[in-house]
Amino acid sequence: MDKGAVVWNPWLKLSRCISQPNFKFQVIGCDSNRRSEESIYKTIWCNTGRVDRPPYLKIHDLASCTWKDASVEFSGGSSQEKKRKLITRSGVSLNGTLFWISFSDKTDPLYQLVTFDFSSEVFYIFCDLPCGKSHPCDALVLWVFKRDRFSVLKQCHITKKIEIWVTKNKVNVKDGNDVLPWDTLGLEYQKPRTLGDCDEFLICNMDKGAVVWNPWLKQSAWIGHPSSRLEGICYNGSNRRSEVGPYKTIWYSNKEWKVHDFAFGTWKNLKVISKSNDSNQSEKQRQTIHSEIGVFLNGSLFWICFLDSLYSLSNFNFSKGRFSRFCDLPCGMSHLRDALVLRIFKGDRFSLLKQCNVTKKTELWVTKNKVNVEDGRDVVWVNFMTLSIPSFPSLVPTKVYSQQPSYFIDDKRLVVCSCDETGQAWIYVFGGNKLIDKVRIDSVVDPWPLHCTYFPSLVPVPRVK
Q: Which residue intervals define the domain F-box associated beta-propeller type in the entry (predicted)?
């Protein structure tokens, strides 16, 4: 904080404020000798985040509320060690000792753990880290693992490769020479390609597979497939709260469709058989899928498709293993970059958002009645809202960034998220066929973010075999 710091236990709802009028000082560690019956908590403060200038360090005793200037140097005191800098701003506490990640200078290719012992008030190098320095902007985080070991997460700023290292055995904080070789979990960086919601989960397609995710329950499942894109997930059982129920996902790549079974971890190639409710449509005519991720309703997945200048809904029924042309949409194609998004409305109906890329006219349609997924001939669309706003931006701004807008309906209002031509994300609120409010999202996301609408769900992510 500006003039001090807070030591806080949110679980017990207890906190302690330490006032430090010199706002340049920041707390960089808090620890105690827990092996004694009366723990004496102390904090160490530094005004620059550096430990090479002893007069700039202070120690605060929480029991007596006293301050002490700490004129402390690294053990050894060589000229190289005097240049040593801390990377991690806050120390990690383990068995009465604080640890930081550090390096000696910009030319030093090694990272080391530096420790400060409150009992002796001495800094010293504890041990080398298992990973070298690739770039000054590398991501590097130290944490306690299994209460008596260390873990280190590193991402190379250049290659984006992620590595997680853990100490093999219990750490003796008195002697870093006993730290045995670190074990690693190699994680390859993969760039998210698409993000969407389907059947109460989030789906994120990446370079070599996809993640099915429930952020509310902090659960996720990785399905690896190097050449296909996850198009949707579906549940065919009766107990959705089971983690081992008959969940299946459908994938597409190079004109081939595959189905993945969560319960058995098996893959099955689909022999695509299309059936149309329109007797006038030729079986040889092939529709192009417009949606990136399918919309789930009552055991079927639905996608927006187009043929010539006509939009329609196509669905896939997992139990029958068959694609069908379900129904026509209430609007035609104006431009290939039209904004067109399908969502579930009131749990058993569809809603459809369209913006013409040429005129910027925006329409919101909903189905009048409950949708019978077995027969699309009974579907009736009604106009929920029409927006003709001068100078309103395109919801699909560029050819490079072609992500569709995300939206939801709140009573009689429409809430939309999209990016402008500069990549800036905006939230728009419409009501009564006019724009009510708009909010610029600055500090939360980077330019050109992936986004979707998602409502918290208590459905657990199925386990992958």
A: 2-175, 194-461
